């Protein structure tokens, strides 16, 4: 009892988990608290003493279905009902409950229906900013490393702890306990204690004992508060993903309710979110854990970004339900999830790909993604529509919010929508990229709504379906035209020869028109068939891109085309000069040079040995023209083309590929 207060009170703290199956609630209470249940619930209140009962693990005495409350706890629930109907009764009860991982827990419910106003969620139990500071000051052993309190370093430390855990009491306690173990380890080994900057860096990087050990994150995700996420199966995790993007959850009310009861989600008004940033980070890790990873380490951050932008699932982003209400563009979290999957896929297991929680929840302390291993420690920040670009640039600057992370390299990736043709938008992009050399801009064409790929393969994906469908439609249309009843009747009439005079002419004209129409359809069908086969062949090459051996053709062609830029201009100028000269010299006497187009066609045939030189042998200057053209085009320019292709092939053979998917 409290003896230093004019008001008498008694506080009883006990756990329902300590009540065994064979004993009653009263016996368990007496064993833990040292007094009889009747004394606590009736005798003390009658003596003008306020009784406070704090019961932990209350779910143990919930009711299973419509049966009686478990652990013979009817007496406890009768007291709860009495207090709800008589607020003047001198007993107050605080109950803590959590739902377990088994299926049987889903049938549990309180024997009494509580009003929502007296039920506290996980978000209401979290520490406030002041409580985080108080808890750190009282329980953190390394507080002396921050010098005289209060200090700006301690404020930064507490702010980072709050961002990491979102004020979750259990996670705050676990994080401080893990840091205290580091403190004790340094003391045992007689090593120097970490400085205030090192303590802050541990919270930001998640590394406690060595570089990139990720020990803090592993400790936090091993707690029951986060481990409960593993009770969801793959289908439930997939349903939870659009909710994490911020999509309307009305159609998934059952999974939302389940996650709210388990503490995975918390609700504010009509919106739901993960109960802590650590929970969101662990969810992301679970969603990508099944993805096969690359075999080789990317040599540079730009190389890795190029690979990620190629393999990111743009279709999933286009179809996501998580969109802004004002602009109808995918939410930032949609991009973050798909980018993380692609980054995880394009890096080997020797690199740790982490999604750091701060920026994902609108805070300012942590970079969106880090990739670290060995000497590599890269930071990546995602933006949409250049939102707060200047602020993001300053974060990576010396003295900025990310400067303490010790990144070896960083970049900003901005996903931006632009009209199909708008020079002003491209000028803005160029200006932004000049302002920040670490900025990558991935553009989408607003007119068609497809996100562009940097290597041009998106056109193959877009055209594949329409061309194949158009071919089959044309087959059906051609078949209908050939089996048309009127057409067949006219053919039979001409075959029988029964018609005479103008009737025969009309029938013949109709048949001729039908044949002409069928001929056009047949030609179009063949063109579509050719295009479909070509596109499907290119689609196969597109699939080969992700194999280190089979992709050698497409990668060599891509590299060679990039090198052909200025050379193609030189080649075209020389080729056109000879084509025009041939038309001027021989156009009036040789049909192959009678016009500019035929002259160009003849020049192409000359390159491949398909030209009869005797046709111009008797004309003046023909020998000089022919051999100068062959020497320049064949011996010089075509060999340069061959050299470019060979060099491109050699370069691709030496390059390490980061996207090797298939295993044999």
Give structural attributes:
single chain; three-stranded parallel beta sheet; 664 residues; alpha/beta; Barnase, Chain D
- How many runs of DSSP E, i.e. beta strands? 12
Strands across the major sheet, in which order?
A: 8-9-10-11-12
What is the molecular shape? elongated
Q: For the record, give the distance between the C-alpha atoms at the N and C termini, rounded to a whole number.
A: 74 Å
Number of domains: 5
Overall pLDDT score: 78
Contiguous uncertain segments of 5+ residues: 101-107, 357-365, 447-455, 656-664
Outline the biggest β-sheet.
5 strands, mixed
- Radius of gyration (CA) equals 38 Å
What's the number of helices? Answer: 26
Q: Would you tell me the structural class of the helices and strands?
A: alpha/beta
Tell me the fraction of residues in β-strands, as a range: 5-15%
User: How much helix, percentage-wise, in residues?
Assistant: 40-55%
Give the SSE layout.
Elements: E1 9-15, H1 25-33, H2 37-46, E2 50-56, E3 63-64, H3 74-85, E4 91-95, E5 108-109, H4 122-125, H5 129-139, H6 152-165, H7 169-188, H8 196-205, H9 215-221, H10 224-227, H11 234-245, H12 253-262, E6 265-268, E7 271-274, H13 277-288, H14 301-311, H15 314-319, H16 332-345, E8 352-355, H17 357-360, E9 369-373, E10 376-384, H18 389-396, E11 409-418, H19 423-435, E12 439-445, H20 458-482, H21 485-496, H22 502-544, H23 552-563, H24 565-586, H25 596-607, H26 622-654
Parallel strand pairs: 1-2, 2-4, 10-11, 11-12
Antiparallel strand pairs: 3-5, 6-7, 8-9, 9-10
Helix pairs in contact: 5-6, 6-8, 14-16, 20-22, 21-22, 23-26, 24-25, 24-26
